[in-house]
Amino acid sequence: MPTIIADSAQVSPRAKLGPGTVVMPQAAVNIGSDIGTGCIINTGASVDHDCRLGSCVHIAPGAHVGGHVTIGERSWIGIGSSVRNGIDIGSDVMVGAGAAVVSNLPDGCRAVGVPAKAQD
């Protein structure tokens, strides 16, 4: 399964990308990040230093993930959202468009708003 990196994307040579991961145009993956299998770092999104993304994570267009963030498998970070440094996001989490994640999110929740709050 190939890993695909757009010509205009920037991926640190000290980042690790799993098989089948796609890094779209104008996206950035910074030093020390470990991206799982089958992830999408979409157009204009950024994953800062020392992040850990599980398999099948989608970082939507224009979303920004701060440093030292962990995101569990199959989670989705919505378009234009932001995740503060040092946050842990569980597996199967959906973060809504434009949300600002400033606290940890448990497995299986949906989180929306500024600041993002987990919904039942």
If you had to describe this structure to a student in words, what would you say it looks like?
With 120 residues, this protein is mainly β. It has strands spanning 4-5, 10-11, 16-17, 22-23, 28-29, 34-35, 40-41, 46-47, 52-53, 58-59, 64-65, 70-71, 76-77, 82-83, 88-89, 94-95, 100-101, 110-112, 117-119. It contains no helices and 19 strands. The protein has one domain (1-120): Hexapeptide repeat proteins (UDP N-Acetylglucosamine Acyltransferase, domain 1, 3 Solenoid), CATH 2.160.10.10. It has an 8-stranded mixed sheet, with no helix packed on it. The protein has a 6-stranded parallel sheet with strand order 2-5-8-11-14-17, with no helix packed on it.
Would you spell out the secondary-structure blueprint of this structure?
Blueprint: E1 4-5, E2 10-11, E3 16-17, E4 22-23, E5 28-29, E6 34-35, E7 40-41, E8 46-47, E9 52-53, E10 58-59, E11 64-65, E12 70-71, E13 76-77, E14 82-83, E15 88-89, E16 94-95, E17 100-101, E18 110-112, E19 117-119
Parallel strand pairs: 1-4, 2-5, 3-6, 4-7, 5-8, 6-9, 7-10, 8-11, 9-12, 10-13, 11-14, 12-15, 13-16, 14-17, 16-18
Antiparallel strand pairs: 18-19
